[in-house]
Amino acid sequence: MTETILEVKNLTKKFSLGKKKQLCVIDDVNLTIQRGEILGLIGESGSGKSTFGRILLGLIQPTTGEILFNGEKKTGLLPLQIQMIFQDPYSSLNPRMTIEAILKEPTLIHRLPDRVDELLDLVGLPPSVKTRYPHEFSGGQRQRIGIARALALNPNVLICDEPISALDVSIQAQIVNLLQQLQKELNLTMVFIAHDLAMVEYISNRTALMHQGKIKIYKKEHDTAHL
Fold first, then answer.
1. Alpha-carbon distance 115 to 63, whole Å?
2. Selection from 2, 124, 14 nearest residue 61 by Cα
3. How far apart are CA 11 and CA 127, in angstroms?
4. Which of 60, 115, 147, 163 has the highest CB neighbour number within 10 Å of its CB?
């Protein structure tokens, strides 16, 4: 029996373009995300995918509508339950901090035990990299570090905001396979945002198409689409 972890109800986001003009980026979206699934979210540039992901995380507040997490209304950030993997692993890592400091920071803030070695092992990196800085790594290695940081607080949900689009094609499959492996090992729920339809269909249990702020869901078994 499936269990809903995130439920989006009548979600709308409008941005002001002046005194009288507004741009509707998310348009009355209703969506349920099941525990342990990977939901692929695809759409053209400007369709609202990244905005939607940031609303789920709590970085952006919706204009109207609500999000339920485990059946309770979500009103802001839930860092212990929901984390994000960002598109550009270099700009999302502090260049002045060692890898050890980057991975320790979330647990220090929330007064949780240090998990640096465990996190590095989860993403396939040796403990010896702890003393190095982000600029000393390749793009794929930096994204592994970004994934490790997202896992530091043991979240239930990962919002993956185009996590492979800034990587070489030869590395993209490695990161996607790593995410699939982590999803199974840790029973994670993921929202995988991308513009590559083939990659989204490969990794996801269901595919959501976003167009002009609206979403349609397609099951992997090619069931009929439904809003």
1. 37
2. 14
3. 43
4. 163
The structure tokens listed for 79 are 């860092």
- Bridge partners of residue 64, in order along the sequence: 12
Among residues 140, 128, 197, the alpha carbon closest in space to that of 164 is found at 140
Tell me the HSE value of 1 on the side-chain side, using a 13 A CA sphere.
1
CB 159 within 8 A of CB 85: yes
Helix locations, 63-168, DSSP H: 99-109, 116-122, 139-151
Query: Is 0.85 surpassed by the pTM of this model?
Result: yes
Phi, psi torsion values for 29, nearest 5 degrees: -90, 135
Q: What percent of the chain has pLDDT over 90?
A: 74
> Which residue reads 């342990």 in tokens?
36
